[in-house]
Amino acid sequence: xxxxxxxxxxxxxxxxxxxxVNNSVYQxxxxxxxxxxxxxxxxxxxxxxxxxxxxxxxxxxxxxxQSLKPGDEFQVxxxxxxxxxxxxxxxxxxxxxxxxxxxxxARITGVGLNERGRPAKIEVLEPLFQRDE
Length: 133
Fold this sequence. Notes:
This protein is an alpha+beta fold. Helix content is 17%, strand content 38%. It has a single domain, classed as Hotdog Thioesterase (Thiol Ester Dehydrase, Chain A, Roll), CATH 3.10.129.10.
């Protein structure tokens, strides 16, 4: 189950010489979905940054199952999970449409940093965590 999903389409320039989406592009898809998830939940990423609160990725784990190709439509899902007091993880998947084939799965771990660059609990994220933890 996901908290959020967004549908996108592969653009030709995202593909490498093999005719498949370059592995680094999937991180862009995942990041875009995370930002849209936060925006939909009322968390303004840019406003937080302007206040000296920074949400940063500290670990990215991606498992490539199959490759997307030019013109493929796909869905990126996002689920936020608590990892610790100041850490969280986004469990994400990319599934090709319309057959719902899993293409890439990821676990992106992040931490909140305060204005001094020290790890800090980010209160604005608290309402976003699954209540069935």
